[in-house]
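[Meeting: bench + compute handoff]

Bench side (C.D.) handed over the final construct sequence. Compute side (W.E.) agreed to return the predicted structure before the next meeting so the bench team could plan truncations. Sequence as handed over:
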Amino acid sequence: MNSIQQLNEHIRQEATLVQALLKETSKVIVGQERLLNRIVIALLTNSHILIEGVPGLAKTLTVRTLATTIGARFQRIQFTPDLLPSDITGTQIYNPRTGEFTARLGPIFANIVLADEINRAPAKVQSALLEAMEERQVTLGDTTHQLDDPFVVLATQNPIEQEGTYALPEAQLDRFMLKVLVGYPTRAEERVIVERMAGDVSASASTIVDAEAIRRVRAVVQNIYVDDKIKDYVLNIVFATRDPMSNGVKDLAGMIDFGASPRGTVFLIKAAKAHAFLKGRGYVTPDDVKQCAPDVLRHRIILSFEAQADGVDAEQVIERVLNRVAVP
């Protein structure tokens, strides 16, 4: 067996472990395959995810169940307008007996942090997450504390009610690898939900993997092969969002004020590698890029006033870009 075959066999074995994790999660969660898939992609790429959907779609239950299956420390932070930065990161407490300050670490010190309704807290609270999300550390006073590994922030927001909410700063939005839109379950799925809720015994998930296994699989994902043609394909997609006129999408000229950042380019390649891994492949295909592009780009494209007036949204822009950019 040559080295390529050995690599592919190793990838299939590790992917089987992740598939078992998803199967265990399905004992509690009905449907939501795309959401679970994207959460796993964020976990395997050491990244963060923003989840948007109306209340009652089991967003919190999904995150909590997945944390259980990987034996991870889970913390839920309910964002409210009166929340303070120290409520998230922690604070220093003065001890009058010793005359010294001691650190009391906040709930951000966990493997999986659910920032529930993140847009309900003011900007100063949201910005408290920036250092943690980007640097994997929190500074309290003159001391820097390293966060756990893995560390993933999963934030939710409600797209319906905007009263008393604060739009996330662009700098923070850009640090979320993915923005996933969660829709209603199908009729068949909701019937299963009703049947489960009517039962006497509630379903529960067991721990399938541990943090060490996640770190091991993450290293495998990093070694997924990306051909130069795929890299150019990703660059062509991103540059089409920045300068549609020069990149074959002339009908979008004037509709985009700002396109995706270089962080979006890097995240799109990382997400495509994780997507290929979940399919049991050791290489990225254009379809992997297409499948991940909407979730990576939708919160990185700022539309012009003209586009919004014409009813054009980010989903339509991304669809046009993917349809026009040549596939290698």
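W.E. noted at the follow-up: The CA atoms of residues 74 and 112 lie 5 Å apart. C.D. will use this when planning the next construct.
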